[in-house]
Write a structure and sequence with these properties.
This protein is an alpha/beta fold. It is built from 6 helices and 10 strands; from the N terminus they run βαβαβββαβββαβαβα. The structure holds S-adenosylmethionine (SAM).
Length: 219
């Protein structure tokens, strides 16, 4: 996927910190955009489901409020089923966007399994959502409505590489953003994919082990 100008490695910074505290203390520059996946309830063993839901609502809103007004925030989220209930994370992020005064610019579907497949606890697709407060997306951007495969996963909770590439190529083509921020960067898939496209990247991750991997990951 490497097509950085002259093969240069774009800059990458990874901070080991709580994402929401870091976003509050570090206002993003105008040339930053966000591409992230908020952590699932299964990552918070000490929280009840309702506590996670409240955390997710607040985190999505904080990410959207931290996004520069003329830039965009992209979320890659997959739904879950818990106790017979379907938790639509696309909806959760959209209601946070309403509170943050952001509009939905587009909503793509990323296939996590081939169409026609019946999957288990997680559906065979993920939401890829793009929001902004003031940026106007082109009416027709020429990009696919359904991304047919998410690509490879660098670890069990990774954003698929093809989904990263789809989002980042859209960002590079249609916005002025040249720095991609992933406040929940995990092993750094988004950061490495951004660097491969010549975009600088900033990641935040609370786990020291994952932050170390995120500094080193190459795709
Ligand atoms: C869905 S994973 C991100 C996956 C990432 N996009 C990748 O491809 O590697 C969410 C990450 O958020 C981290 N995380 C959870 N709560 C956090 C917090 N409050 N601040 C920073 N990172 C957090 C988790 O440790 C986990 O690595």
């Amino acid at each position: 996927m490497a097509d950085a100008p002259n093969g240069d490695r774009a800059a990458r910074t990874v901070v080991c910190a709580d994402a929401l505290e870091w976003l509050a203390a570090n206002p993003l520059q105008e040339d930053c955009a966000i591409l992230t996946s908020l952590p699932d309830a299964s990552e918070f063993r000490k929280m009840t489901f309702d506590e996670w839901l409240a955390w997710f609502d607040a985190a999505a809103e904080a990410v959207l409020r931290a996004t520069p007004g003329d830039s965009v925030a992209l979320f890659y989220q997959s739904d879950i089923r818990i106790d017979g209930r379907w938790i639509d994370k696309g909806y959760l992020v959209q209601r946070a966007a309403e509170r943050a005064g952001c509009s939905l610019l587009w909503h793509r579907i990323v296939c996590r399994a081939p169409a026609g497949t019946s999957t288990g606890r997680r559906p065979g697709y993920a939401h890829l959502l793009c929001f902004s407060r003031a940026f106007q997306a082109p009416e027709a951007d020429g990009a696919a409505d359904v991304v047919p495969a998410m690509g490879s996963m660098t670890w069990s909770r990774a954003t698929g590489t093809a989904a990263c590439e789809f989002a980042l190529k859209w960002l590079r083509r249609h916005t002025e953003a040249r720095v991609v921020v992933d406040p929940f960067c995990g092993h750094g898939t988004v950061l490495a994919a951004a660097n491969n496209l010549g975009l600088a990247a900033i990641g935040v991750e609370r786990s020291p082990g994952r932050a170390k991997k995120a500094r080193e990951l190459r795709l």
